[in-house]
Structures
1.
Amino acid sequence: MQIALLGIIQSEDFENEILKRREYVQRKKDIAIKALDKYCNSDILYTILLGGLSIWLELPKDIDPEELLQKAREYKLNFLPGHIFFSSNYNKNYLRLSYSHLADECITKGIQILCELIDNY
């Protein structure tokens, strides 16, 4: 098995596939960032993790991510409330957005709707 994998990893096709995947994920991330910059107000901070496939949003303290998620689901939007990633309630006003599996226009429209929901919370 290891010899077979070594052959795949050392092939030019593998290198080309990795480059294509990087470009794909970078494009998705750029679309998400552009939408956040366009639609989110300055009360919402976001963090982009290096090498990750998601963006962390820090919401104003008065917004409950669980409640926001219920409203978002009415628009067929989904995200992960940040508290499930932490052992304490310290970071309860965070949420995690994933973008790598979505169509480009869905990323933009979804972030637009989410930011409107946050603004109208």
2.
Amino acid sequence: MVMLDEASLDVAATAVAGVVRHPAPCPRPWRPAYSSAMPLPPVAVDVIAYAPVAFFHCLHCETIWQHSAVRARDRREQLATSLPADLALEYQRLSDWARTVDATYGGRVRLRIIDAVSVEGWAKSLRYGVRRYPAVVVDGKAQSVGMEFERATELIERRLEARSDT
């Protein structure tokens, strides 16, 4: 059995917890005009992939369970065993790439990992026409499918360059 490293489990737990606790904001019908004094919004990068899954209690119970070492151990075990070995290795590479993107671009890129088998992952797969995973979608337009994260990094860099030119 392949074990994910602690940082990858933290990325998975954050992604799962982020989906549960922080729903996506509603899209606005208009966009404000940006001046040079205003910072540009970050480049939105959606990564649709098979991700480790952990099940949560309701928010009230989860608040209590967060302070229990038993629950933390159970959650780690759930995340560590929720993927078969080949998908765990794939997710480990994805997690390493995500940490590199975060360290390189910081606040200029908003990275979201979406589980491919969730309702949101299914809807995004339909919307973007994705049939293989992992899939990296940059600002809802450019795509990189498969384990070629170099191409995804190029797409992010091109998008950042295009924003800086305007």
